[in-house]
């Protein structure tokens, strides 16, 4: 769908430079500083920053179009930077005091995360002391803060899934990101030891899904913050898979148009199997985009109406994006399987797209085996399985 998107137009001006850095990002095992500077120069990090701090508060469809385009240039950069952006949306649901801590003196500040609840804590006066080796913190080299997850005992004897926000001065980064795909995302481990976290930097995940968090209602004119945090966080992954798949269509067409079979000298560009594979993958990628645009528009409409989704709507939103990723992976695989052995070489773009697209489907939120169970239970009227994310 064509829609006005000034930020996307600005992004297009820096994409060629970011694409040139894609191999460099893999060599560094993190996003090059130049890429971060280019993206901050056009203000992409302000996508979900509250307007009170100079942010844009753009709609989810506008943001996802940007991330899809960025992923087509360098998916590692898109992965890390998308999360730095969506974490702003999440932190806007924390207390105003936390927001002042993060953005009061530096509105360009961002946060990486490690939100699986693996952290350990001890209660302390006015907050907690947090400890943990928090893995999977994409883009952490370029962030000033971190959002980390833990389970906190409540007064009913149960545990609340919570997030704590911790400044860069209170943790170190373990350089342990050695991956087959998304090599340049810098998804490293945060090492935190007895970091004091005041109460105003802690928030229950459940409250952030139900409009009950400390920051709820802080921005009554906003069209993006009357929304649960998780769909915004998760939709970036589907956007990346879509951008990679769309780029793979271009790469396959370009490679195939020039390809000649080594032993026979036959041109491949008019071979029926190649044409059929390109046609089917094109249909599949277009279908994935249409499906995701419909879902993104629902997110936008709900947020603008200050309407929270019910459980069934959330189940569809969560699982739609996983199914779109599945379609994109199938489309990429169909093309890569027929693009020729030369494209397996490490200096070829096609093999990077193939690897990164599969990584888009490996995240906990895009695991379709999990998502299919979630939606199936909802359709059958069964209670959610707490073992499923």
UniProtKB/TrEMBL annotation:
Q: Which Gene3D superfamilies does UniProt cross-reference here?
A: Acyl-CoA dehydrogenase/oxidase, N-terminal domain, Butyryl-CoA Dehydrogenase, subunit A, domain 2, Butyryl-CoA Dehydrogenase, subunit A, domain 3
Q: Out of the domains of life, which is the source?
A: Bacteria
CDD domains noted in UniProt: NcnH
Task: Please tell me whether the keyword Isomerase is annotated for this protein.
Answer: no
Database matches in Pfam families:
Acyl-CoA_dh_2, Acyl-CoA_dh_N
Protein's UniProt keywords contain Transmembrane helix: no
> What InterPro entries does the annotation carry?
Acyl-CoA_DH_C (IPR013107), Acyl-CoA_Oxase/DH_mid-dom_sf (IPR046373), AcylCo_DH-like_C (IPR036250), AcylCoA_DH/ox_N (IPR013786), AcylCoA_DH/ox_N_sf (IPR037069), AcylCoA_DH/oxidase_NM_dom_sf (IPR009100)
Q: Name one GO molecular function term.
A: acyl-CoA dehydrogenase activity
What does UniProt give as the signal peptide span?
none
Annotated ranges, domain Acyl-CoA dehydrogenase/oxidase N-terminal: 17-99
Task: From the UniProt record, list the coiled-coil ranges.
Answer: none
Start and end residues of each Acyl-CoA dehydrogenase C-terminal domain: 236-367
The protein's UniProt keywords, in alphabetical order, are: Oxidoreductase
The record ties this protein, via PANTHER family, to: ACYL-COA DEHYDROGENASE, ISOVALERYL-COA DEHYDROGENASE, MITOCHONDRIAL-RELATED
Any idea what this protein is called?
Answer: Acyl-CoA dehydrogenase related to the alkylation response protein AidB
């Amino acid at each position: 769908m064509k829609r006005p998107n000034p930020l996307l137009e600005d992004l297009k001006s820096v994409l060629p430079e970011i694409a040139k850095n894609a191999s460099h990002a893999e060599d560094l095992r993190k996003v090059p500083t130049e890429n971060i500077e280019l993206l901050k120069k056009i203000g992409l990090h302000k996508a979900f920053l509250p307007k009170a701090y100079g942010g844009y508060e753009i709609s989810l469809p506008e943001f996802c179009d940007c991330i899809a385009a960025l992923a087509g240039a360098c998916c590692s950069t898109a992965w890390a930077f998308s999360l730095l952006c969506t974490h702003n949306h999440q932190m806007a649901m924390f207390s105003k005091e936390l927001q002042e801590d993060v953005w009061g003196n530096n509105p360009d500040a961002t946060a990486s995360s490690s939100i699986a609840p693996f952290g350990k804590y001890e209660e302390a006066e006015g907050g907690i002391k947090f400890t943990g080796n928090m893995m999977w913190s994409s883009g952490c080299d370029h962030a000033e803060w971190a959002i980390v997850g833990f389970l906190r005992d409540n007064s009913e004897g149960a545990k609340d899934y919570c997030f704590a926000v911790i400044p860069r001065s209170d943790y170190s980064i373990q350089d342990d990101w050695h991956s087959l795909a998304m090599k340049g995302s810098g998804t490293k481990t945060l090492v935190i030891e007895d970091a004091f976290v005041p109460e105003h930097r802690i928030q229950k995940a459940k409250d952030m899904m139900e409009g009950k968090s400390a920051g709820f209602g802080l921005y009554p004119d906003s069209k993006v913050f009357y929304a649960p945090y998780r769909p915004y966080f998760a939709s970036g992954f589907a956007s990346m898979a879509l951008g990679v798949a769309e780029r793979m269509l271009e790469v396959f067409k370009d490679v195939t148009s020039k390809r000649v079979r080594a032993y026979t000298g036959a041109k491949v560009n008019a071979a029926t199997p190649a044409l059929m594979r390109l046609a089917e993958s094109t249909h599949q990628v277009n279908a994935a985009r249409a499906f995701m645009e419909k879902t993104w528009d629902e997110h936008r409409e709900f947020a603008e109406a200050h309407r929270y989704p019910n459980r069934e709507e959330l189940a569809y939103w969560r699982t739609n994006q996983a199914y779109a990723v599945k379609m994109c992976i199938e489309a990429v695989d169909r093309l890569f399987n027929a693009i020729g052995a030369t494209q397996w070489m490490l200096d070829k773009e096609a093999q990077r797209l193939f690897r990164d697209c599969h990584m888009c489907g490996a995240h906990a939120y895009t695991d379709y085996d999990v998502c299919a169970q979630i939606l199936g239970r909802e359709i059958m009227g069964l209670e959610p399985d707490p073992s499923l994310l």
